[in-house]
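Thread: Modeling a multi-component assembly for a lab meeting

Hi all, long-time lurker, first post. My supervisor asked me to bring a structural picture of a complex we are working on to next week's group meeting, and I have zero experience with this. I have the sequence lines for every component (231 residues in total). Could someone generate the structure of the whole assembly? Inputs are pasted exactly as I received them:
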Amino acid sequence: DGGITQSPKYLFRKEGQNVTLSCEQNLNHDAMYWYRQDPGQGLRLIYYSQIVNDFQKGDIAEGYSVSREKKESFPLTVTSAQKNPTAFYLCASSIEGLATTEAFFGQGTRLTVV
Amino acid sequence: AQTVTQSQPEMSVQEAETVTLSCTYDTSESNYYLFWYKQPPSRQMILVIRQEAYKQQNATENRFSVNFQKAAKSFSLKISDSQLGDTAMYFCAFMSGITGANSKLTFGKGITLSVRP
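Re: Modeling a multi-component assembly
Sure thing. I ran the full set together rather than chain by chain. Output:
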């Protein structure tokens, strides 16, 4: 079945450590997105990529990094520079940008800094 | 920059009744797309309905319909015959009609809807 997969579902990180969240899709979608969800804040865009080897900063990119070496994969690294990383992270994908079709979301990763 | 406002943090409705969730947005563009997403307790985001700004007709999907008022920049979601499975968080979202490197989906803060048995 086609879909978008995030792993792991739960992730714990010690302060000062980098951690990478995985996002893989087999929908042949061009565009991929990372959102952060906090209580009362809605979804805020971290990074997005419309094509392989290219990506743009979203509204809250500081402390995060991404790569897009393959069409299917868009991993997100939460670096030690992110001051408040505990949150729920959602990855999404769509065909040639969200305007022409719906965005499909993964099941999310809950990151907790301990 | 576009903004999406959902001013009601929570709502409650009796099963089988109708409820309307409000959303307003701000943009200087004339061509854009609006969405309502549902996030149940599983936290899986599900598209409920979408509306193209150039279409005057309000979108409808079974029990879900929208009231799109372009001049007022209002995009409310009406849920008819509410069911227990409608209990979820609902997000209103805006997307520019200009695709390309600057396109992105902007979400409101969401509203928690509870359907009472």
